């Protein structure tokens, strides 16, 4: 018998052995059979309902918010009874919220709720899809022209920045290295991540998000590759028409614009700070005012990661499932701020705002059109004249 034929026979026998599954010892493990009597949902969670503060600490939602969310998602999460009783909608929602709130492994949560780790993974994916699909139209709809104007009015009233459509920034969500991905997800911090790009309004709510960018990309590269960035470049975002600033009509009509840091390019509808260290006073004032408005996205990321601790862990899931979890937490963030009336997160003080200026950009300037440069210059002139605020001269 020649060598090649022998090798082929050995390969076939090896495949047959690996296909043979080990015999199940249990259909359902005895420990999990008693889950109704001993699992966390039927004991601890029911006891937490008598203390709203502890309930909120456990789920990041109070009882009323949890029940309201369950009412919206219950029909989607309810499974038909077959030969075995399915896990109820309330428990499915509890398992998913606990994972998002802690970032614990599926195995750890499975032991707590006496279900399998694979079952936890399936439930988390299912509930996150339901949260995004069922609530996105209510709590993160696509902004219309009137919505953009309302956002701009909020920035003018709260942050003294006219014609501002939102602050934009990116956040890295750390995950385990996906198999066969090379360096696509390897970021500049030495970890593996997906990029989460967000536009935030004056009240720390997410208005536009783009999730799933490769960790190796910069914020500017992620913006350019995103649907939002392409729509911004093509002018198909339904933005308001240029309008003059009240009490400063001498500067003419100024375009509505987003504000970002030095990682983003200067565009007609996207403002970034002036680069460099030794800047004239008027440019430093502009950088301070822009950094102050841009704090909203930094604060929103901070609120998000303090509520949903999965952002402080290395997620042991794939990029697709991590993307679903990020989308779900953004919807829940807006849900809490809109339905729950917002939480007691203080507005940054002037000292904190001035700290943003001390961390102002030092990078070189990106290429920009002459029109974008002229728009930034006119904003700079407004902030040093008609749009001056009393404290900016003490900060800069």
TrEMBL record:
The protein, known as: DDE Tnp4 domain-containing protein
Nuclease recorded as keyword: yes
Residue ranges annotated for the DDE Tnp4 domain, each copy included: 168-334
Family the UniProt entry places it in: Belongs to the HARBI1 family.
Molecular function GO labels: hydrolase activity; metal ion binding; nuclease activity
Protein's organism: Coilia grayii
Annotated Gene Ontology cellular component terms: nucleus
Cofactor list: a divalent metal cation
Record has Heme as a keyword: no
Localization: Nucleus
UniProt keywords, alphabetically: Hydrolase, Metal-binding, Nuclease, Nucleus
């Amino acid at each position: 018998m020649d060598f090649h034929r022998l090798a082929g026979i050995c390969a076939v026998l090896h495949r047959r052995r690996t296909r043979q599954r080990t015999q199940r010892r249990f259909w359902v493990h005895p420990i999990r059979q008693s889950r109704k009597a001993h699992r966390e949902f039927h004991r601890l969670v029911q006891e937490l309902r008598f203390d709203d503060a502890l309930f909120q600490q456990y789920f990041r939602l109070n009882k009323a918010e949890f029940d309201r969310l369950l009412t919206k998602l219950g029909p989607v999460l309810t499974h038909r009874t077959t030969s075995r009783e399915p896990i109820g909608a309330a428990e499915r929602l509890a398992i998913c919220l606990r994972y998002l709130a802690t970032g614990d492994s599926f195995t750890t949560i499975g032991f707590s709720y006496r279900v399998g780790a694979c079952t936890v993974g399936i439930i988390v994916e299912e509930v996150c899809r339901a949260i995004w699909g069922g609530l996105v139209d209510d709590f993160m709809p696509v902004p219309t022209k009137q919505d953009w104007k309302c956002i701009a009015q909020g920035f003018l009233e709260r942050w003294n920045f006219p014609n501002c459509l939102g602050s934009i920034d990116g956040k890295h969500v750390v995950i385990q290295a996906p198999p066969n991905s090379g360096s696509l997800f390897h970021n500049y911090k030495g970890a593996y991540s997906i990029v989460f790009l967000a536009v935030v309004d004056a009240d720390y709510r997410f208005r536009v998000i783009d999730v799933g960018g490769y960790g190796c990309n910069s914020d500017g590269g992620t913006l350019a590759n995103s649907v939002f960035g392409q729509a911004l470049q093509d002018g198909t975002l339904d933005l308001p028409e240029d309008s003059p600033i009240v009490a400063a009509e001498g500067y003419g009509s100024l375009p509505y614009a987003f504000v970002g840091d030095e990682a983003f390019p200067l565009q007609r509808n996207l403002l970034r700070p002036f680069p460099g260290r030794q800047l004239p006073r008027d440019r430093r004032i502009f950088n301070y005012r822009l950094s102050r408005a841009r704090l909203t996205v930094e604060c929103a990321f901070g609120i998000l990661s303090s509520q949903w601790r999965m952002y402080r862990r290395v997620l042991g899931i794939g990029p697709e499932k991590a993307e679903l979890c990020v989308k779900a937490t953004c919807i829940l963030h807006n849900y809490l701020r809109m339905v729950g009336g917002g939480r007691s997160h203080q507005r940054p003080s002037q000292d904190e705002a001035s700290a943003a200026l001390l961390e102002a950009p030092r990078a070189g300037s990106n290429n920009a059109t002459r029109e974008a440069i002229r728009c930034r210059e006119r904003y700079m002139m407004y902030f040093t004249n008609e749009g001056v605020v009393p404290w900016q001269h003490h900060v800069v």
